Amino acid sequence: MSVERREARQPWILLSPALAAIALLLFVPLVFILIYSFWLRTATGADQIGFFLDNWQEALSDRFYRDILLGTLKIALITTIACALMGYPAAYFIARSRGNKAILLLLLMLPFWVSYIIRTMSWINILGVSGAVNSILLSLGIINEPIQMLYNETTVILGLVHFLLPFMILNVFVSLDGIDETLEDASNSLGATKWQSFLEVTLPLSLPGLAAGGLLCFVLGAGTYITPLILGGPTDAMFANLVYEAIITQLNWPLGSALSLMLLVVLGTLVLIYNRYLGMAQLMKGLG
Amino acid sequence: MSSVTLTDIVKRFGSFTAVHKTSLEVPEGAFVTLLGPSGCGKTTTLRMVAGLLDPTEGEIQIKGRRVNDVPIHKRNLGIVFQNYALFPHKSIAENVAFGLKYRNVSKDDTKKRVSDALELVQLPDVGERYPKQLSGGQQQRIALARAIVIEPDVLLLDEPLSALDANLREDMRVELKRIQERIGVTTLFVTHDQSEALAMSDQIVVMSEGRVEQVGPPQEVYNTPASEFVANFLGASNIVPANCMGRDGNTFVFETETLGRIAVPADKAPKGAAAGPAKLVVRAEKLQLAPRDTPADGAVSVDAIVETVDYQGQAVRYFVRAGDRQLQAINMIDERPFAEGAQVSLRLRPRDCAVLPTI
Ligand SMILES: Nc1ncnc2c1ncn2[C@@H]1O[C@H](COP(=O)(O)OP(=O)(O)OP(=O)(O)O)[C@@H](O)[C@H]1O
Ligand SMILES: [Mg+2]
């Protein structure tokens, strides 16, 4: 066998365990879900096997689903923007700090040591009726009765930002860390102020990281059901909550399958769009 | 008039002093080189002039203006970094035009100046390309074009050639000097490569451990080193302890254990040389090996034995033993080099010796 052919085969050999796992754990269940989505749940509660378009018709035509989908995308977008605005400066600070970079990164990882659910629930202890904020305000005499701060869209976004910020920071950090610092010096020396140098040089070079972090935040945010379950009110359901509702509460697996595929297609499209841009970013990397 | 003046500059990093009290003048239009071994504070000094580091003490003037508190973007300097520091996301033309954006240069003017600059560095056709599509040497030229297109008051270069391979380095050396002379820009150049410094500079500033050892034109620094450090750093030298017997007409007479009595012309000795212990510098290439039976022709002649032969192509480096001292000699090869163990005679013309200042 020629060297080239052996080298061409090598990646596939190395990838095969991962590919096998993905095929088995992701692709096969996905096919099941696709098949399920064409079954029909009858009034008796039993699933009727066959090829029915009823679930899809309901999912695609009902305004209720559409509104919640749009609401979900809106929450994910706000969360992503908030993460970008808060995460970028933090990532910049870590990337430019000398010596204690490792410690800062470790601190960034720290939240991952605690379960996401517990981290989300912790907001109840902070913002809840008998939570820290209310207790302090009460004891200071600023308010006479506890304020209800929880269970609205804002707290859902708050919880999502809390959950997703480290992903944003990490992604931006990685791309900022890879930027040669003398580029900013060079830009400065040519007459650009620090801020102009940032806008002209650092920011454009860190966009791939920002985009990757943004995509991750958006997809994870749009797909979540735990945060709205814990921190949202009755009207703050996100799309994944509908899936949860259909499958766990109503035991309507066919409808749940159709809904989850719908979300998958929407988010998948976003990933594909991003991929086009990443392709461009890769091209730029190749150039630069 | 001097273009850059450093007055009593000190730079400390915490308790470590990277640059000790240093004063330096770079004359208008001159090519001045900071030369010294790794870690001696060359980059630190350059970065203080650039405004990338603040001096702990002292004053920096550029064109007569105190710039200590002037931020880097207002200093009007052209800096060429060791790693080129071209903007990877901008085309070559955009890279070169970058500094002009902040100088109110019209579009047409920018275009013209960019193409002139590219012409000057002999890369007129690469404007559309991106840095990664150029070779290292080409990127270096673009970095130079970007720095000079803004017509800087001073051009600062930190080891700009060290990332290039040996042949290219020599070409770029000539090229850089040509461009510098052509535009006449005051240049402060940093290198640890003595041949670069000797070939390009009007003035060499030899540094060691954060101090200036000697400042002077290349020939002066090379021929009359001011310290043992300079003598050793610039080329291979032998430092021979001697005893000065005093002045005798136009010469100083030295008595050495290794090379006997040498009468060195007075202009090779520092001012104020006097009788007493001294050190002579004998450049390795001035120490000639000869068969013992050839006449000495007025040169100092001492018997020696070849200990090591280091063959270098057109030249050969010998380590020879004369008395209890090992000396090195670099000779051009005439026919064939001497073999190890050969009994030879060392020849040295007294005027090829230099005398180190005492203290
Ligand atoms: N930011 C810093 N913090 C602490 N010490 C530093 C810093 N920058 C430089 N130094 C120290 O100052 C000394 C001089 O450094 P400098 O970079 O000026 O050396 P150099 O002459 O340019 O050497 P080289 O030829 O290796 O580039 C070195 O000992 C270096 O370790
Ligand atoms: Mg240096």
3D architecture notes:
The complex is a heterodimer of chains A (about 290) and B (about 350). With about 290 residues, chain A is an all-alpha fold. Chain A has helices spanning about 5-35, 55-60, 65-95, 100-110, 115-125, 130-140, 155-175, 180-190, 195-220, 225-230, 240-250, 255-285; strands spanning about 40, 45-50. Chain A is built from twelve helices and two strands. Chain A has a two-stranded antiparallel ribbon with strand order 1-2. In chain A, strand 1 and strand 2 form a beta hairpin. Chain B is α+β, with helices and mostly antiparallel strands. Chain B has two domains: about 1-230, P-loop containing nucleotide triphosphate hydrolases (Rossmann fold), CATH 3.40.50.300; about 240-355, OB fold (Dihydrolipoamide Acetyltransferase, E2P) (Beta Barrel), CATH 2.40.50. A six-stranded mixed sheet of chain B has the order 6-7-8-3-9-10, sandwiched between helices. Chain B has a five-stranded antiparallel sheet with strand order 13-12-11-14-20. The interface of A and B includes residues 190, 191, 193 and 200 of A. The structure holds adenosine-5'-triphosphate (ATP) and magnesium ion. Adenosine-5'-triphosphate binds near residues 18, 36 and 40 of chain B.
Number of strands of chain A: 2
Order of adjacent strands in the largest pleated sheet of chain A: 1-2
Q: What percentage of amino acids of chain B are in beta strands? A: 35-45%
- What is the end-to-end distance of chain A? 36 Å
CATH superfamily of chain A: MetI-like
Shape of chain B: elongated
Give, in spatial order, the strands making up the sheet with the most strands of chain B.
Answer: 6-7-8-3-9-10
Mean pLDDT of chain B: 91
H/E element order of chain A = HEEHHHHHHHHHHH
* Residues in helices of chain A, as a percent range: over 70%
Stretches with pLDDT under 50, minimum 5 residues of chain A? 282-288
Shape of chain A: globular
Oligomer: heterodimer
Unreliable runs of chain B, pLDDT <50, ≥5 residues?
A: none
Please summarize the sheet with the most strands of chain B: 6 strands, mixed
